Amino acid sequence: MDSDSGSYFNSSMLFKASILTISFTTIYFYKTGKQFNVIPIAASKVDSVPAMVIAKPAEKKKKKTIYLTFDDGPDKGTKIVYNILKQEETPATLFIVGEHVYGSRMQQNIYDSLKACNYFELANHSYSHAFRNNFNTFYSESDSAVEDFEKSADSLHFTNNIIRTPGRNIWRTSGIKSTDIKSSATTADSLYNSGFTAVGWDVEWHYNDVQRLVQTDSQMLNIIDSAFAKKQTKTANHLVLLAHDRTFKTSDDSASLHRFINRLKSQHQYEFAVISNYPGLVNDSLNSK
Q1: 163 Cβ contact partners less than 8 Å away, ≥ 6 residues apart
Q2: Residue 69: its pLDDT value, please?
């Protein structure tokens, strides 16, 4: 028998054996009543692809703005303040007294230096400083007070209409109306109606009878932190600080100013601006005379 015949025989026998096996198995289950148990196999769920979570960029925390303002210049100490602020590249507003500019050649030179520096904004602090500190008379004569500020504005050629009233914490802006001493209210209103915008202050760096600072730089920093925390400023997140040029004429007090500015900068929650950037003052300037 050749190989092909053998292969055919083996295949035939295998096929017959398979048929017999299936037949016997079917008969057995039929007679015994047994059934095939079909075990369902759950189809595996397709793993869901997790949604990609895109993290939102952290919102940049808005900084609080501090407006450094210095009154009564040019005076003893003004040049020192000028040097510190310029070295630290810190913007500030200096409220200038007309008579002080023309008091001496040195004061005129200081004023010229202030005008030429981009870090400083110059604003009107009256011409005579309330008739040389005669506050009661000054604020009881509204017309004369207005004329005094106008004289300063005309002679010093200020580029804004912002003023600070001598010896009084007065605010007259489009959004703030405040007078610390009620007897000054009429004059404050007259100044505003004449086109001036009066800006007072939130915190003052006090000085004693010999023109020396009362608070240390650390104490002033705590006072500012507290004023913001307790919402004790005229406008939320904006603080106007009043200081006086003459209180920084000594090396100790000027060093306090220098440390004070550096400590404010190091906290990274504060920024500095000139007073014309205070909220609402832009509109006041546009509506000025």
Answers
A1: 95, 123, 124, 125, 126, 149, 191, 196, 197, 198, 199
A2: 98
